[in-house]
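Final report, Chapter 2: Outcomes

The project's central promise was a pipeline that accepts a single protein chain and returns its three-dimensional structure in a standardized token representation, suitable for archiving and comparison. That pipeline is now operational. To close this chapter, we reproduce one record exactly as it appears in the project archive, with the input sequence first and the structure output second.
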Amino acid sequence: MVKTMKYIKYIIAALVVASSVMNVEAQSAKSSYFMDGAFHNMQMNPAMKAERNYLSFPILGNMGVSLNSNVGLSNFLYPYGENELVTFMHKSVSADEFLSGISPKTKFDLNLDMTLFALGFRGFGGYNTLNLTLRSQVGINLPKGMFEFMKRGFSKDYYSFSGLNMNSMNYAAITIGHSREITENLRVGANFKYLVGLAYANLNVDKMNLTLQDNIWMVESYATGYIATAGETNWTLDESGQVDGAEMQINSPMASGYAIDLGATYDFKDLVDGLKVSASLVDLGSINWKHMIKAKTKDSQIRFEGFQEIDINDFESSVEDQLDEIQEDAEKMLELYPDGNHAESVKTKLAATMYLGAEYEMPFYKKMSVGVLYTNRFSDVNDLYDLRGYLTLSPLRWLEASVNYGVSTYGKELGWMLNFHPAGLSMFLGSDYMIMDVSPQYVPINNVNANFTFGVSIPFGRRK
């Protein structure tokens, strides 16, 4: 296992080198929410049903990639001369200019959702689903003081990095779902999930203060780190006794847990023809890690030399080497040591998500609708709200297209989706977050929000 502080290296590398570092959203693509022909909407609202039975296979069934942040590469890269780029550490970039674009907390969300198997079919008085998925949820918070220190350096004699937090949860989910009509207008559904924990890691910095003493930075910190895997985990230590990684042995029951999704849809056709509303609450549950082990910093001060400038124009010899140096310097500030030799049983909650939707079918053209969807995710690290409006078209029975635009915790966003579902084949592709504005050097100007999702399924049975 890599050292915990390598997270910082990867984040800085993503900001400095490219915006192509992606991961996957924890649910199906929101751009497909109002598509009748989509087969995976039941993951967002279990009361929804597919128009036909379907079968999905590993990876092809449903997969997407995304990265969300409240900063963009333009916050860290600046034009210099005619066609050059320099980092925020360059002398041509003033501290006030750089820091004016940095929020009190720089947030990153990286996640993974891959469908290994999915089956949907009518029966038992309703519609039924069976899914096997892999998921990874990562949240990172970097305090503004860290970037201020990197830029201002010795011009101040005190900085605080308190509030730095990193969290990663990785698990597999076996889901059984059922939905049915209660009345002609009301439909309800639920998904029951059995969860298998694969790996969990958390780093929380309650206090980290840097004070300049005789041209040397003294670091006073208190931080705790937790790690757990599917089996029994033991720290691996370096010569000084500092945590260097972890070893896992599958010789005990795996971490496990349960979760449930609840949803409902209602058709207001008796009052307003064409108006439908929906609501759901998903991922209500937790995982019990039976071998959670803890590490913490020592109650002592650490000497730290500080960060150096990164030269973006010399990638091979400069960027990679200096990112390694930044990693090593950052590790000096967070030297974690085992807190005892015993493991604890700890429960960790999933990031529950709420969806509220409304769709109106155009009376002058039944194959077109407008809609609005509000999403709110409740996370221990980074909460997320998302509000977007939709225009959905289905000009042919086997073809649907949707575009949407809205705002979220991470800024403005544009999404789209195409869904082809003729007899014998169903394929969709699209994005919830498109990078629209780039500089002449093709650097994203606004926040780094990128996403791509696709899937292929085999429908069978008649349409309904």
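Archive annotation: Confidence is low (pLDDT under 50) at residues 1-27, 314-319.
This record, like all others produced under the grant, will remain available to the consortium after the project formally closes.
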